[in-house]
Write a structure and sequence with these properties.
homodimer; alpha/beta; TIM Barrel; 2 domains; three-stranded antiparallel sheet; 16 helices; 16 strands
Amino acid sequence: MVLSRPRAIHLVTDMKLKNANFSFEIQAQQGRARAGVFHTPHGEILTPVFAPVGTQASVKAITPAQLNEMGASLILANTYHLFLRPGDDLVAEMGGLHSFMNWPRPILTDSGGFQVFSLADSRKIDQDGVTFKSHIDGSLQRLTPEKSIEIQENLGADIIMAFDECAPPDDRAYNQRATARTHAWAERCLAARKRPDQALFGIVQGGVFADLRQQSAEFIASLGFPGHAIGGLSVGETKEEMNAMLEVVEAVLPQDKPRYLMGVGAPVDLVNGVLRGVDIFDCVLPTRLARHNAALTRTRRLNLVNAAYARDEHPIDESCACYTCQHFSRAYLRHLIVAREMLSATLLSIHNLHTLLQLTRDMRQAILEGRFDQFADEFFQQLAASPDEAQREPADEPL
Amino acid sequence: MVLSRPRAIHLVTDMKLKNANFSFEIQAQQGRARAGVFHTPHGEILTPVFAPVGTQASVKAITPAQLNEMGASLILANTYHLFLRPGDDLVAEMGGLHSFMNWPRPILTDSGGFQVFSLADSRKIDQDGVTFKSHIDGSLQRLTPEKSIEIQENLGADIIMAFDECAPPDDRAYNQRATARTHAWAERCLAARKRPDQALFGIVQGGVFADLRQQSAEFIASLGFPGHAIGGLSVGETKEEMNAMLEVVEAVLPQDKPRYLMGVGAPVDLVNGVLRGVDIFDCVLPTRLARHNAALTRTRRLNLVNAAYARDEHPIDESCACYTCQHFSRAYLRHLIVAREMLSATLLSIHNLHTLLQLTRDMRQAILEGRFDQFADEFFQQLAASPDEAQREPADEPL
């Protein structure tokens, strides 16, 4: 793949892609797990897939060439952040996100909803939308379903998301109200969208309540989106609750469209998700852990600042094929961390992202070869035998 | 070139390289400018050459693969920093610097002298060496000529430096004392060294005083080092003073050995240096400027945070072949800077380092083709026509 210099590919040009279409083929299925191909105007996404997060149009500390080398296909960017800075109009003027950040493969933007509810100050929700203060400069801003779509059309990602409200998972009354609002907003997003070269996904909400999830999945599925997202999970509920909600939703959503589990990226959650019919995942976990000096393997989390690694000549993971594991020892990585060298974030991000990308590739291959049950069994056995827990996220940085 | 995983190549192995030798061939000469090849145990250095600085065994924000892609050959690491952290014994145990930081090409370590005089606290100099407090933890440390050599032998670079005292350039009495001490220490370094696979360079001092520089060059040249460094410049003196000192020293140092101008890296200084017989340069300037949001071209310095670049679709330098200029606009780089994304340091470092590496490659080619006079004339004409000054260093970070 040639990562070429950004050109002035303005919206006008993108609008010519009238015939660009999206299609999802399921190549193999085992239980509820599927291996598929999602075709987009910027190329194929082989599923199951993990999407690295480039919040502000940059996967933190990583170049597109490095993302390409680790085999990333789909990446995510955040509407809330790019709306506030540098502004979606500027990104459009620079030819859209693909050109701006030099990622010629598929991109997904979220709707901004989640960040408004987790990052912004003084937010006021009404039936029409949300007014809030920017976390950057305190300026008063407003997002509505129509505005979210307008921003996402300016950004120009291949997959865009309906504007939704994400409620605390265990507040039933709140989830009832938020789900109703999310459904009304989903219809408005569908009505507002203009670009035929973007696939708009609807989002299922409903917290940890099976009946709300079921109703939400039924309603969202009825609207005819080309793909569906499952929102409001991995936000405080238990693994068992997450798995139960995935099962409820899986039974309702159409089989022939891709399913995206938003904001979920621990290895165990990827395996649990694929077992329950999820095709697409994204999470800041691998790059955030990297900036907190932690290396992720499928079953462990290594805190590399630990003195035990000071003279450890082994790579993070002997079985890993990433650039970092092929070239650097734990001792060197620890030195970079202790000496506060920026390169530690880059090398650990490369490893952590590669770990999740390779896990989804291996799951895909196992499904294609009809041995995914065995793959999952082995994964959980290894996890149970692992000396530490690989599931918690560091909480000292906002999502 | 394969950048392979670090192996346990301990000192024992390195000591087998008894037949490794260093030789310097001058391939073409024009005036005092030379194009040469310096052969080292880790490969050839084509001169004139610029050496990126990896202070703490990492060229800040850059991977060895990226250094390789931009055509770096020689890189520098700092004895003072590595002695304090992670410790030269640890680096030796991990197989030496080449293996530790995964740089299989030539490495140069300085002696630690310059940093002791510029970074350390409460230093006390005596005839035998320097006692000082670590800038990291305040611990009391001592460096002597013998200790500097011992550390550098543990680190295992191809080119190592004699321990010297760097005085303020315009204090004549201090420079007389410091030069005398530097000369005595140079002899002790020669006597102390044991590894035959390292080339020990002597350092000429003498501030901005032609007679002291002349005496120092004569004395250091008499000791038979395989290469010579010119220290104590680019530390506050004028360009005219630097050039005058280079001319004094050039007339004395043997023609058939490489000359290294320490800590100098502004484009104009590289051209001035090559015009005066310098073969090797190093400087933190390109990577430091990158972390201060400045992009370097041969004749300009662009502060990319400037609002004028917000919607600028051009690369930093249309004529530049680096990864950054081939793939990213000024608008995107400015966005990364404003959004405080680490990737800005990486992309600007790639560009700035490439600019200096390419400048030395182009000077080398011009010398080989007998058109270096013309090259230098054109360079100075373009510099004179440039809208801003490309010579100042940001002063807000210690060397």
